[in-house]
Prior knowledge:
Blueprint: E1 3-4, E2 7-13, E3 19-25, E4 32-33, E5 36-37, E6 61-63, E7 66-70, E8 84-88, H1 92-97, E9 103-106, E10 109-117, E11 120-122
Antiparallel strand pairs: 1-2, 2-3, 4-5, 4-9, 6-11, 7-8, 7-10, 9-10
Amino acid sequence: MASVAGKALYFYESDSGEIHIVELDDKTLTLNISGTAQLQPAGPATSPFWAKVSRGATEYGLKPRFLNVCFTTTAPADLELGRTYPVVVLATSEFNAATVNGTVNYQGEDATVRGKIDENIYPGI
């Protein structure tokens, strides 16, 4: 998909199995869970609705699932050691493979999973 100014369009698999388009940081695919590089689900999109990462709490739409990761030993040059960062997980199977307090690799550095946040649809349906 297209890439613009550090952002890229990806396919995202919702918990219901539909494929949505989502705009994310172009480093999203550097996430590696259990030795498997994150891959976007096969397109094309099957839903007319985009997943929206920065959706407000009362704004309608699908907010994708993500992991909160924290770098505890070494951080990439543009990120801070000890700070927690949200990273969207594009496929349900990859999200399920991650474990809280487990290790993932993001942007070439190992990080600890501090939390798993499920996708959210507002209004809840």
